[in-house]
Amino acid sequence: MKSTMSMGERVNSTIRGIKTVIYGRTAMILLGFLAQLVLLCVGYILLRNYSYLFYAFFLTVSAVAVVYIFNAPGNPDLKLAWMLPIAIFPVFGAIFYVTIVSQPGTKVLYARLTQQAENTRKYVRPREATREKLRTESPHMGQLAHYLEKCDCSPVYDCTQVKYYPLGDSQFVDMAEELKKAEKFIFIEFFIVSSGKMLGEILDILKERAKQGVEVRFMFDGTNMLWNLPGFFPDMLEEEGIRCKVFAPIKLIFSPHYNNRDHRKILVIDGKVAFTGGINLADEYINQKNRFGHWKDAGAMVKGDAVERFTYMFLEMWNESQRLPETYEKYRLPQDASVSSDGYAIPYSVCPLGPERVGEMVYLDIINTAHTYVHIMTPYLIPDDRLIMALTYAAKRGVEVIIIMPHVPDKKYAFMLARTYYNQLLEAGVRIYEYEPGFVHAKVFVSDDVKAVVGTVNLDYRSLYHHFECGLVLYRNSQVAVMERDIQDTLKKCIEMKVEDYKKLKLADRALGRIMRIVAPLM
């Protein structure tokens, strides 16, 4: 007898029914990682005790590694974090460092993505006139646009309309409506995919659209296979005509590449509409599931020429494992003359494998060029030295710097770590608030009523240095005022933190947070 359940109901029911299998597979992978670590430690101890030549060799490697790290370009925080294990464990630390930096899989991935980016440049329409127009209106914004186009293949667009969402609840409604209108293709890329109302409804729409001949591609990060999804989930989608890929699936053999996750959230429909922001495909993001109180998130819908960049971002990541570049011609739609100009928009991506830290550069640019205020929402606050200096200097020169954090954390260790930065920032004049009703997952910057960013980039090392990310820069767009209004409404539900509040925390929490700061750049 044929099942009367919809695709979404069937998938959700299947996932709920095999949670123990998913967790069992995860336990096996974790045990495998632990066994490899134990074997490495035992081998190191035996060789150290019975081979002086081995020990002397790796002491030399340690010394060379320290000299190399000290002189290499990059963030000083990361350098110090690497030097510590090498200094404490001269041989083992050197082995670990050499293993990480010489990992061939990561280098191959970066080479493939670089090739994909070069392929993209053939299809991106010239935007020199728009960039020069922006430079005339604002020299520093013109310079930021020049940097993003040169280093990220992300041009500036003017014929673009944006709608900002202060909650995932409202974004999900529009996502579903726009998906139902799809006629040519749907590209979906998310970090977290979990069973529930949101996933179920979207899968039902995707199945229906695929039946009508719409090309549907669905990509998600491999960590979902550890906690949220069964191994055969991609096959379930393929059976319904939905092409599916898993980014960097985690297998039994450990690889440093597993540290570079696909944290992006991108939905593209027909090359005409795109969504991005902090919202994942899980019910807590739309407040259908209560995990950490009220879930405060943010996102944006983009229509017009700027959708082009989101289309290419998705295709670059989808095709990273392809031997030959895919032609983008069928996805290169004519410019939509019906979409009027509303300021400027620059969609951008973040690749953790190359020399450029695009996500951090965008944030630093906004902080350093602010005249009146910079208002920030972020779930995590683990800034490097450059961000700390920028934030404190901005406050000291009279810019109103406000940071909104969660009051109910999703990760206690990250919250303890974040609070160790509070006093340094507060004493410099930065104002920090915690969202009392629950958890803030929004990644939003607003400055001077003219500039804003919404996307996936957190203020922590994982987003700035280890994850693949994306975002949307807005300048003189009508939604900047909407974003600032959202921040002001959110502040009404927040508790302002004071210097003395840190002293009220448990001594153990403060001590653990301070210790974690040492290794935070590697986390």
In short:
This protein is α/β, with parallel strands linked by helices. The protein has helices at residues 7-17, 19-50, 52-71, 76-88, 90-101, 104-121, 128-137, 139-152, 168-180, 197-211, 224-227, 233-239, 307-318, 358-369, 385-396, 412-419, 422-428, 461-466, 479-491, 499-503, 507-519; strands spanning 160-165, 185-190, 215-221, 243-247, 266-269, 273-277, 294-296, 299-304, 344-350, 373-377, 400-406, 431-435, 438-440, 444-447, 451-455, 469-475, 494-496.
What are the segments in which pLDDT stays under 50 over at least 5 consecutive residues? none
Largest sheet: 8 strands, mixed
- The secondary structure category is alpha/beta
Strand content: 15-25%
Distance between the termini: 51 Å
CATH homologous superfamily descriptor of the largest domain? Endonuclease Chain A
Average per-residue pLDDT, rounded, comes to: 87
Please describe what this structure looks like:
By secondary structure, the protein is an alpha/beta fold. The model has no long low-confidence stretch (mean pLDDT 87). A hairpin with a 3-residue loop joins strand 5 and strand 6. The longest helix is centred in the first third of the chain and has 32 residues. It has 21 helices and 17 strands. The strands form 3 sheets. It has an 8-stranded mixed beta sheet with strand order 9-16-15-14-10-11-12-17, with helices on both faces. The protein has a 7-stranded mixed beta sheet with strand order 1-8-6-5-2-3-4, sandwiched between helices. It starts with 6 loop residues before the first helix and ends with a helix. It has 3 domains: 97 residues, no CATH class; 208 residues, Endonuclease, Chain A (2-Layer Sandwich); 165 residues, Endonuclease Chain A (Endonuclease, Chain A, 2-Layer Sandwich), CATH 3.30.870. Helix 1 crosses helix 10, helix 3 packs across helix 5 and helix 8 runs antiparallel to helix 14.
